[in-house]
Specification:
alpha/beta, Alpha-D-Glucose-1,6-Bisphosphate, Chain A, domain 3, TATA-Binding Protein, 3 domains, 6-stranded mixed β-sheet, 39% helix, globular, binds magnesium ion
Length: 462
């Protein structure tokens, strides 16, 4: 492997960095030329989130693509799932989302989208990186520089696709009140309209697009959506939803104002799915709570575990034809719409479940199984990680461990552990789950001991 091959641009979800520092305008322009070359100078869909740097970067991306010879459909500000959806829907050769998702305002980034609407996989990213680092992108002849088309019809197509997945008349007849917190992100342009069109009366907070994110941090978490909880209570809303900066993740607030992490909404959507589609398959990363396993067992449903990462979930869903995917961080993937996480789709699904059940959200959530989590970080030199995982898997073989990403063991007594190597630091992350916090803690302590022993053994052998 040469030094060139070791250089990386793409992380877990695209290329990200602080604007004008790691993510320079030169990089964005040349990367766009490399991406346009990778997509064979074809038809491209481009959109951006609402960050202060996004208009400038989007224009650079469009210029870069056009210089290669791509015809570009500029949809302006839009949530990432809408850009994904239109890339597929308009049969484009590829797409680019200018976004840094939920990162702080000084960041921005580039996500590349394959024709199926899913972010490019690692192999495709390697190809793009190869073109970029070897500076071997195309340069179109002057009369072959691509057209740029302002595309306006995308929002309608996107919202209609979501509405087709739910019982519109049932939701309309209930005349729900919903509090929406887009966190000053681009879901302000979609989720609020969607819910209004479903007959909900919508109240908003942080509802204007503002790339400085003045309202709250861009990643919605139960501890930072207090204003939304207040709005739910003061307005008497049936539920509240808080989205991240590019609108692909959503967490929910019940009618009492209590905010719930994504594992709870995921459990509710999974339970509802399996109640109507028994034997259906849900795709979820190994890091998900075993609550989903308990629900699957009760409903006769099937789970397919993946590596941690939204792109892995999307690809697995397409591969096996699964309709539903879910992540604990508030990512809900609904393939009849599109197999990417989409906070607007998640909001419509929750509205549909509330109408169907005729029960308040707090009651629905409290009826579902829940687990307590204990976490540990275990130092381990990078070169020993594989041996340690192999040894643990060997030692635990009677429990039939899941090894797609680290080692996960679901014990018969209803507890579970997950050991995953960090990709960036010389540590393992250990998670233990049980019905009570004290049981989770003692399980974590027990396995911390076992794993540290293995690490010691392997360092002696080395
Ligand atoms: Mg996001």
């Amino acid at each position: 492997m040469t030094a060139l091959d070791e250089r990386r641009l793409f992380g877990t979800n695209g290329v990200r960095g602080i604007v004008n520092k790691e993510l320079t305008l030169e990089l964005v322009l040349e990367l766009s030329q490399a991406i346009g070359t990778f997509f064979k100078a074809g038809k491209m869909v481009v959109g951006s989130d609402g960050r202060t740097s996004s208009p400038a970067l989007r224009n650079l991306v469009i210029g870069g693509l056009a210089s290669v010879g791509c015809k570009t459909y500029d949809i302006g500000q839009a949530p990432t799932p809408m850009i994904d959806f239109l890339t597929r829907g308009w049969r484009a050769d590829g797409g680019i989302a200018v976004t840094a998702s939920h990162n702080p305002p000084e960041y921005n980034g580039i996500k590349t989208i394959a024709p199926d609407g899913i972010e490019t996989d690692r192999n495709e990213e390697l190809e793009i990186e190869k073109i970029y680092f070897s500076r071997s992108w195309r340069r179109a002849e002057w009369d072959r520089v691509g057209d740029v088309v302002k595309a306006e019809t995308g929002l309608r197509e996107y919202l209609d696709s979501i509405k087709m997945q739910v019982d519109i008349s049932a939701i309309e007849s209930r005349r729900m009140k919903v509090a929406v917190d887009p966190g000053n992100g681009v879901s302000a342009l979609t989720t609020t309209i969607l819910l209004s069109e479903l007959g909900c009366s919508v109240v908003t907070i942080n509802g204007n697009v503002d790339g400085t994110f003045p309202g709250r941090p861009s990643e919605p978490r139960p501890e930072n959506v207090g204003s939304l909880s207040g709005l739910v209570r003061s307005s008497g809303a049936d539920f509240g939803v808080a989205l991240d900066g590019d609108g692909d993740r959503a967490i929910f607030v019940d009618e009492s104002g209590e905010a719930h992490w994504g594992d709870r909404s995921m459990a509710l959507i999974a339970d509802d799915y399996w109640s109507t589609k028994s034997r259906g398959t849900i795709v979820t990363p190994v890091s998900s709570s075993r609550a989903i396993k308990e629900i699957a067992d009760a409903r006769n449903g099937k789970i397919v575990w993946t590596r941690v990462g939204s792109v892995d979930v999307s690809h697995k869903m397409i591969e096996i034809g699964a309709e539903l995917g879910a992540e604990e961080n508030g990512g809900i993937f609904y393939a009849p719409h599109i197999a990417v996480r989409d906070g607007s789709m998640a909001s419509a699904l929750i509205a549909g479940i509330l109408v169907k059940s005729k029960q308040p959200l707090s009651k629905l959530l409290s009826a579902l199984p829940s687990y307590e989590l204990a976490k540990e970080k275990l130092p381990c030199p990078n070169h020993l990680k594989k041996q340690v995982l192999d040894a643990l898997r060997e030692r635990m073989s009677k429990y039939n461990p899941e090894t797609i990403d680290g080692v996960k063991i679901l014990f018969e007594d209803g507890t579970s552990i997950l050991l995953r190597p960090s990709g960036t630091e010389p540590i393992f992350r250990l998670m233990a789950e049980a019905k009570s916090a004290s049981a989770a803690r003692s399980l974590a302590d027990q396995y911390k001991g076992i794993i540290n022993e293995i690490i010691k053994e392997k360092s002696r052998d080395a």
